[in-house]
UniProtKB/TrEMBL annotation:
Cellular-component GO terms for this entry: cytosol; mitochondrion
Protein's GO biological process: kynurenine metabolic process
Functional pathway: Amino-acid degradation; L-kynurenine degradation; kynurenate from L-kynurenine: step 1/2
Keywords of the record: Aminotransferase, Cytoplasm, Lyase, Pyridoxal phosphate, Transferase
Protein name (record): Kynurenine--oxoglutarate transaminase 1
Gene: Kyat1
Subunit structure: Homodimer.
InterPro entries: Aminotransferase_I/II_large, Kynurenine-oxoglutarate_AT, PyrdxlP-dep_Trfase, PyrdxlP-dep_Trfase_major, PyrdxlP-dep_Trfase_small
Originating organism: Nothocercus julius
Amino acid sequence: LSLHLQAKMSRPVQARRLEGVDQNIWVEFVKLAATYATVNLGQGFPDFPPPAFLREAFVRAVSGENHMLHQYTRAFGHPPLVKILAEFFGKLLGQELDPLNNVMVTVGAYQALFCCFQALVDKGDEVIIIEPFFDCYEPMVKMAGGTPVFVPLRPKVPGAGKPMSSADWQLDPAELASKFGERTKALVLNSPNNPLGKVFGRGELQLIAELCVKHDVLCISDEVYEWLVYDGKEHIRIASLPGMWERTISISSAGKTFSATGWKVGWTVGPSRLLQHLRTVHQNSIYHCATAAQEAVAMGFRWELERRGQADSYFTQLARELQGKRDRLMRSLEAVGMTPIVPEGTYFLVADVSAFASDVPEAPGSDEPFDSRFAKWMVKNKGLAAIPLSAFYSGPHKNDYGRFIRFCFAKEEATLEAANDILQKWKQEKAAP
């Protein structure tokens, strides 16, 4: 009997669609950072609280007399939330949005992405992904049966005496156009971009839009860092460009908007003809998102709508504060010999660490990119955690760009001060005879 049971249990249980997508950079590096005493500037989330008005709204939601806020709400979005999102984003997109048909609430932007790929990508479809890219795009496309097609942002040499900016990483128009074909179903756009912090300009977005319209291709626009732009840059929503509303799904979340990544409240905005298919995936997977969190986020957007463009706008204050932290971290990294790339947006900063090649032990016979080996060495020997940029590239390009690492600067002053102390000590060690 035991042999019979053992034979039955040895049967493969893994679905074939999971093959090759089981590895995850975050699992590996979070574990590594926890193993060693580190200052963690790797994983991308703030270590400061959401604004007081948002926390107070959540407290009112869970402690007030409206007991229905503890129960199910509308499956595709709590009515107060979809109503304010339709009002808020309708103004930005120049569209009259129907809260019930043009907005869908999800369990964070992550689930919004999953719904897009599962609902719109079929076996044999190709999806264009711009590199470097947030790492979940590739496995989600593959799990849906699609084929990722990669096109890189290529760095241009800045002018003499100028630091490299994320704006210097650009698409080659001819190369991008060559990726569109009969099987192209969608293009994934992430602006502001994680990990580079690139904010795509109007000319770049018009190029993408024209190709999408010409080839009748959908656009999945991940805009979770839409409020985190610096130095007077403008975040342009591609759905607002001619011909793009009808083919674009715009994604964002309260996690990045209100510094509340653990609440997992995200949303999609787009035409009903597209969102109706996302709703089918949503109702057969998650079905429902946390009611009280949606209520609090609705109150947060109501607060922000009333203060839009004013000094006490949280979006304005947060961007200003993070720009200062960005500049501080850049100075610290430069002091130790790294070469930062100035991010135009997000709360990430990429730095070139090729000057440290001689400090990191060789790994004969290993195909692990240098930046990955460097990031692990830095955690173990310097107590500072970052993420290798190669994790944001497809296999063929990992070594091409494997000399950069990504830091997160959405941290409290104490955390950044601790990181600065590590870098200053490192600088002294390098200067010692």
